[in-house]
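Board work, copied verbatim: phosphoenolpyruvate--protein phosphotransferase
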Amino acid sequence: MVQMSEGNIVLGAQASGKVDAIEQVGDILVSQGFIEPGYIDSMKRREAVANTFLGNGIAIPHGLPENRELIRKTGVAVLQVPGGVTWNTGEVVHLVVGIAAKSDEHIEILTNLTHVLDDAEVTEMLAATKDPADIVRALSGGATTVSRPGPQLDTLDFDHAVDVTIMGDHGLHARPATYFVDIAKTFDAEIYAEYDGRSGNGKSLASLLKLGVSGGKTIRLHARGADAKAALAALKEAVDHGLGEQEEEKAVPQVEHGWTPEDVKRVVPGCMASPGLACGPIRQYTHRRIVVEAIAKDPQHELIELKQAISAAHSNLHNLYVEVRARTGEPSAAIFKAHEAFLEDPELLADTEALILEGKSAGYAWRQIIDERVRHMEQHKDEVLAARAMDLRDVGRRVLRHLAGVVQDEPFIPTEPVILIAEDLTPSDTAQLDPGLILGFCTSGGGPTSHSAIIARSLGIPAIVAAGPTVLEIQDDTQAILDGNTGNLYLEPSPKDVQTAEAAKRQLDALRNKEYRSRFEPALTLDGTRIEVAANIGKTNEAEKAVNAGGEGVGLMRTEFLFLERETPPDEEEQFQSYKAMVEALNGLPIIIRTLDIGGDKAVSYLDLPAEDNPFLGVRGIRLCLNRPELFLSQLRAIYRASEFGPIRIMFPMVATMSELAAAKRLAEKARIEVGASPVEIGIMVEVPSVAVMAREFAREVDFFSVGTNDLTQYVMAMDRVHPTLAAHADSLHPAVLRMIEQVVKAADEAGIWTGVCGGLAGEPLGAAILVGLGVKELSMVVPSIAAIKSYIRSISMTQARQLAQKALNCIDNNQVRTLTLP
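↓ predict structure ↓
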């Protein structure tokens, strides 16, 4: 193990905040020859990715895995802060134990440290001692009076057990242990880990760290309870895949710009959330408080008000989901699907209703319960769970605005480009930011894995988070440079720094714009095969954006926007005008209009759809349209009328059987005859495995296939693609999904029709290359991805794409596919 020495310890220190404390303990590590100075920045960035507060006044800051080359040798340093330093809300630290881990030699010290946590008398002594030998003794295992736990676990009382081997060079340290605990907590079962004659609670971070498990060691997991077997299966899978280590290293992408300042008046350090540079004036943004009455006279009326507000919030969230999905893709949009789950929390609703029945107004009761939940979540030691507090706050405000009866908390819309400063931004705030006016943003709280940070990256807005409360004191119009790569906000920079930063930004933009400038060039592979690249859109005004972005048409026009958030369905004329406007905006380019695809998962009052236990397996898409023929015919007539103004194709969603397709085609022909239109091409979405399996039969009855990889993956893998724990595994690059697509393409080729893909996989470079190699002729994606994917296709050959696709088909899982590179 690492030998502690008094030279590694500084007593009686003072720290202005968490960042200052990390810098000080980092300086000790530098002075003792353990790390390069650059590793200190990595330690600060790590803090935003994983909370390093252990408990009982102790924190263990450490760096990011990708910066391990900055570690000269494994070492530990201790900064004692007798007066305490606030780590996170409600967390005060007296011992800052900085760790530079080049190997697993530090595990024994970490194990001893977690035993110290159990001895309040010792931790109080270490926080105040003036003798560094006390700390040396504690970290060497000789200070605490609390003995190490013996084999306390009676394994006979447990229903199931499984052996797992901890992967990686560094063993079960804080980060993978946290990942383990997150999964364990999703199950009701009681879970314990057994190692070397000792046991630890699988739902307790400190308990797991006490085991001191090194890399390559095997531990036995025990579980009892109704879902014990499922819990062990999930945990074994997580351990086998590295407990999130590999995924986390790639959490925040970097775009290098090479700029560094020379003369600025003040530097505000934070954590990077979205890369890039921004130069401009500061503008502070604060949410205004929504005022509601505390007391209400009629509880029954208030219960109705609550129900209506929640219903309206559901509708708002769905529309926001559709809008964000069209702008940035499914991963960012799925955040708002998750928000809807908060509105369905039975305990949240029950607690609110209980306060209403005690005489409180719906608004007051809702706010009280939400605030209580938010405070509880913010204090959670797990960074991911703590970050969800902002999501709950966002949902709470959304409902509260309806209960207040007025909208007085609108998103910030500046009149000139600014760098936005805020305590934190909700996902809804971030999704509605205009990149043309918000140059970048910096928040005092939050983290790079928060949903707001994810959306910022998808929008290309440079962002810094966790900069501390002092950032809220910066005056409006203060000139600043925000560097999303380093996580620093530079205030009042010199004219030269502004000049060099803007030059670096122009160079950065030039790299991004190179693809954009060539966006109108066809997507021709190096050996001359043309792939059509089109856009997925969800609103009328997005058709023009698709053309301007280089789209060669619209491969998926979602018509749901016309039907949602209203009391009556759109009539034929309204639909016709919308479709006609899109056709005219495309100026001769083709558009595929997907007929209505809604069901029991969406709140549409005038359809009076019953709630379904599993709406994705219920009456949705073509099933709903066939059940409501007049609604369907109205839409089909409007589409056929619009087809007289430009090339339109009709596509039916969620077809599962030949009889459904036949019925839909009969109604389409009836609508065409009624309006006297010419025939148009008719295709179907391939989203259901039954269609892929019977693709040869379906290919004889349609003019084209369009594979919806998001839903197809969901149904093939039997995994909800927005499920909080399963979504990461519902990967369209799984060989099972790719083999389905190959089968569809082959059947289409035999029948002389073409296959497109309009799911998220089409907008991902690796996915696009594999799809091209499988023989897909058209790729349709969110507008921001068009230029990059066209550029990428122009850089590869069909020979390379085919070889890559064959390798992917022969893989055993999606992780193996994602390691592939072009031949």
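The chain has a mean pLDDT of 84.
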